[in-house]
């Protein structure tokens, strides 16, 4: 924290800080509050799917549409990206900038693979006539899974931005704080996807 300076030009001297002061842990607290709001949004989407997920309108059901082997591959991509991000955080604690960038790049590749498989699945469903307007089940499915996919997309953009920041400025305190926030966000998306895989895909095919 910087020492206060005195403004002697004013009629009544005033104390002020010569540098901006960032309250300790304020960013992390704010980001936790954001994640809680995101939890509420996904809870609403899961609840909507729970209500509408069996309204097929005489159309295809989950058992007719979902390929569990493809979804399992997609799930492994996201889970592996979470592991590689953890390796990046370990290297950050060691102050190893080069390896942080390497593990972040690998994380981004796994995330991009996840998105690629998801887009392929969406395109295949639409090609088969099972688009989001076909039934209430498909509307709620595309909304839930698509919202998660958008989060992953934003996470990859954020990750690339942080890679540029780290490469230019190194592992300064601000970049470490940003990497911690992205770590929480990325692991949060993993937890949500496990819920999607279990509740939407697995229960839809097996149940």
UniProtKB/TrEMBL annotation:
Belongs to the cytochrome c oxidase subunit 3 family. It comes from Rhizobium setariae. This is Cytochrome bo(3) ubiquinol oxidase subunit 3. GO terms for molecular function: cytochrome bo3 ubiquinol oxidase activity; cytochrome-c oxidase activity. The chain crosses the membrane at residues 31-52, 68-88, 100-120, 140-164, 185-206. It comes from the Bacteria. It is a multi-pass membrane protein. Cytochrome bo(3) ubiquinol terminal oxidase is the component of the aerobic respiratory chain of E.coli that predominates when cells are grown at high aeration. Has proton pump activity across the membrane in addition to electron transfer, pumping 2 protons/electron. Residues 1-205 form the Heme-copper oxidase subunit III family profile domain. Keywords: Cell membrane, Electron transport, Membrane, Oxidoreductase, Transmembrane, Transmembrane helix, Transport. One of its GO terms (biological process) is aerobic electron transport chain. Heterooctamer of two A chains, two B chains, two C chains and two D chains. Pfam families: COX3. Its main location: membrane. One of its GO terms (cellular component) is plasma membrane. InterPro entries: Cyt_c/ubiquinol_Oxase_su3, Cyt_c_oxidase-like_su3, Cyt_c_oxidase_su3-like_sf, Cyt_c_oxidase_su3_a-hlx, Cyt_c_ubiqinol_oxidase_su3, Ubiquinol_oxase_su3_dom. It is found in: Cell membrane.
């Amino acid at each position: 924290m910087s020492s206060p300076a005195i403004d002697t030009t004013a009629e009544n001297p005033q104390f002020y800080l010569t540098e901006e002061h960032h309250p300790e842990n304020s960013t992390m607290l704010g980001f936790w509050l954001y994640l809680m709001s995101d939890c509420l949004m996904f809870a609403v989407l899961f609840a909507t799917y729970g209500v509408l997920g069996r309204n097929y309108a005489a159309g295809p059901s989950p058992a007719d549409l979902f390929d569990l082997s493809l979804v399992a591959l997609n799930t492994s991509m996201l889970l592996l990206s979470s592991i590689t991000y953890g390796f990046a955080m370990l290297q950050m604690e060691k102050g190893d900038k080069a390896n942080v960038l390497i593990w972040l790049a690998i994380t981004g590749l796994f995330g991009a693979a996840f998105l690629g498989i998801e887009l392929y699945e969406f395109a295949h469903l639409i090609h088969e006539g099972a688009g989001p307007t076909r039934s209430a089940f498909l509307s709620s499915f595309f909304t839930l899974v698509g919202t998660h996919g958008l989060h992953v997309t934003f996470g990859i953009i954020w990750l690339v931005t942080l890679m540029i920041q780290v490469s230019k400025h190194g592992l300064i305190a601000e970049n470490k704080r940003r990497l911690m926030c992205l770590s929480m966000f990325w692991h949060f998306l993993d937890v949500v996807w496990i819920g999607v895989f279990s509740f939407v895909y697995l229960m839809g095919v097996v149940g």
